[in-house]
Amino acid sequence: MKPTVWHVPKDATARLQLLADEPAAWEYLLFGYHLREGLRGAEQKWRDYSLGYSVTVGSTVRASDVNSVTSERLSRVVSIVSNLERIISIPAQQAAFGRPGEPGDVEMIEHLAERLTLSYVMLMDWADEFLGLRFQRRSDLGTRAAALVWQPVTTYRKFVQDYISQVEWGLYRIAQGETDSLNVGMVIRFEIDKAAMTAFTKERDKLARGR
Description:
This protein is an all-alpha fold and 211 residues long. The chain has one domain. The chain has nine helices and two strands, in the order H-H-H-E-H-H-H-E-H-H-H. The protein has helices at 12-21, 26-41, 43-51, 66-87, 90-97, 106-132, 141-148, 150-175, 194-208; strands at residues 60-61, 134-135. A two-stranded parallel ribbon has the order 1-2. The mean pLDDT is 90.
C-alpha cells in the first residue's frame, strides 16, 4: 500500500488525524512527532546548556570529597548514556513498531519517545547540577563536566532531525514509485569524548590535591 501521508504531524490535531486514519507507516510518523515535540519542549534547556548558562547553586565540595562526589556523578551519567542506546535497541523497536506485517503499539511508541526525551533532558540537568557545585578554590570543573555530555546531547538532537528527514523522504519516494521499502536508520552511538574526559580528570585531580 502506497503511503498517502509522508509528513510527521506538526501539531496535536494532525497527530489525532494520523491515529484515526492509520496510513501506511503511521507508526514511524507518530514516533517522529513525539521525538520532535520532546526537543521543542526542552529547547530552552538546550539553549542554556549550549551557552554554559546556569543559575543553579549547589553545595560546596571540600578537597577531600572531590573524588567521591565526582565519581558518583560520573557513574550516574554513564548510566544515562547507556539507557539512550538501550531504549532504541532492536527488541524495543519491535515492541513499539511491531514485527513485519504486524501493527505498531501506540502507547509503546509514545513511551519510547518519552524515555528518549527524558534521557536527553537528564543529560543536560546533570551538566547543570555539576555547574552549580562550588569548590574551595577557583575551578572550571563544572564546565569541563558539562563538556563530557556534549557528544550524546548533540548526537541525540541530530538523530531526531535525521530520523524525521529519513522517514518523510522515504515515504515520499515510495508514494512516487521510486522505491518500495522504507529504510530508516535507528542505529546510534553515544559516547563520552576521551579528550573531554582527560581534561576533566586533570582538573578534578588538581582540586582533590587542594591546588
